[in-house]
Please model this.
Amino acid sequence: MTRTLTRGRRRGGAESRALDDVGGAHVMSWVIAIMLFLTLLSAAAGLATARAAGALDRQMAGRLTVQIVEGETQRRDAAAAQVLRVLRAQGDVARATPVPQADLARMLQPWLGTDAEAAGLPVPALIDVDLTSDAAAAIARVTVAVTRASPAARVDAHATWLGPVGRLLDTAAWLAGAIIILMLVATGAVVMLAARAGLEAHRGTIEVIHMLGATDRQVARLFQRRIAIDAGIGAVAGSVFAGAAILLIAREVGALDSQLLDEMRLGVADIGLLVAVPFGFVLLAVVAARLAVLRQMRRML
Model:
């Protein structure tokens, strides 16, 4: 009984080693590494873009900017005060805050210089408005009230001029998702082709193994083992390079000091999803290899 078990273990080890020696099998590690690298970059970009799109939607929802354009400073300030009183009396307005002229001068300094108002250049007064609702009817009511309070007042809804940016971000996020799906499909196809090629390369060995009593599932398990090892090596390499690239890009984005780009920082849940992607790749490779081997063996034998 002991001799039989020993021979069985030796035979199983020999079968495993024989099927491991596939010419060019380790090319699969490079393929997985490249595919995973591109997938992780696409996933990180998609998650970051989705975060920025969500933040932009929150900023646009029910936000208005009222401009009072008057060439004469006293009339401008009086009109701004009147419009502010009207806004704060509106039931649709949750908050109305005037933008300090010092802040406006600082924002306009790169284009108009430091003495724009002293030189007679008209600098408008701005009022930031948060509405209780982003409904079109509420925006229309506030717009009518503001224009009645001052003919020099202009109302700009943030959604009007930031809407195209939000749609662009949404499109980019969906495109990143489509790229990830294509990468997964391509990876599965490559693994299946590699498994079939290995099966053909070891046709003689597999026939001998079958004559020794091995089943199709046992042979498929040997191929799964080889593919799992190669996929694991490729997943580690691809994850390391992708992680380094993502950290480098995140550092460069953080240095730009942009409010919109700051919203693209990945959260804990996003990082968790990225960490799960390499494990998903290895699982995909193993399942694809098993399906390809079992299907091919049914045709061969």
